[in-house]
TrEMBL record:
This is CxC2 domain-containing protein. InterPro entries: CxC2_KDZ-assoc. Residues 11-121 form the CxC2-like cysteine cluster KDZ transposase-associated domain. Pfam families: CxC2.
């Protein structure tokens, strides 16, 4: 946000354009603008920005699709096709830490983001449902990552029920922490 004594303006209104995915430091010759009302959620608030994806033939293999360019920049899109709302991975990690530690609800966290933006005099667009979807999607992907499913043969589709659960190291498991022949031991030792 830019502040002066008369009027507050968002960065989009003063001409900021974010260029994604270009493979060199010079300007992209074929920028492809994303949605005209593109919104980024960050820990500082809800921000409208102009975003261009790189569409140069020489950078296309490196840059990838717009969704991949957003992910490379640390922006997590709501949808895979034609994204128009993103949350920074910093904000998603911050929310997950807040909710695990202080039990902050998703609604309360979003309202705080809206207040951070709205207290400057700028009415932010309502992206609560998009934020909710991003948080659930991001938490699910983190759960798959922590379970080591990123490089499995069938990734998500091949994950069977219960395979993401953390194994209890105290519970007896044959072949893991029980000696061979344990079933032949007397009832006192079983």
């Amino acid at each position: 946000m830019l502040f002066n004594k008369k009027k507050q303006k968002c960065l989009k209104e003063i001409g900021l354009r974010v260029q994604l995915g270009h493979c060199s430091n010079d300007c992209c010759l074929e920028p492809s603008p994303l949605h005209k009302e593109f919104v980024v959620l960050h820990t500082t608030g809800i921000n409208k920005v102009d975003v261009d994806a790189c569409n140069c033939p020489e950078c296309q293999l490196w840059a990838g699709a717009p969704k991949e360019q957003l992910l490379h920049a640390g922006w997590f899109p709501v949808t895979d096709n034609r994204p128009r709302t993103c949350a920074t991975t910093d904000m998603l990690n911050h929310f997950l830490a807040e909710t695990y530690q202080s039990k902050t609800t998703l609604y309360d966290y979003y309202m705080a983001l809206e207040k951070l933006t709205n207290n400057t005099g700028i009415k932010p667009p309502n992206r609560y449902y998009a934020f909710r979807h991003m948080v659930h999607k991001y938490a699910h992907i983190l759960m798959l990552k922590h379970a080591g499913r990123g490089h499995a043969d069938f990734w998500v589709e091949g994950t069977q029920q219960g395979k993401l659960a953390v194994q209890c190291i105290c519970c007896p498991q044959p072949g893991v922490n029980l000696p061979e022949g344990w079933e032949k031991a007397g009832p006192k030792y079983q």
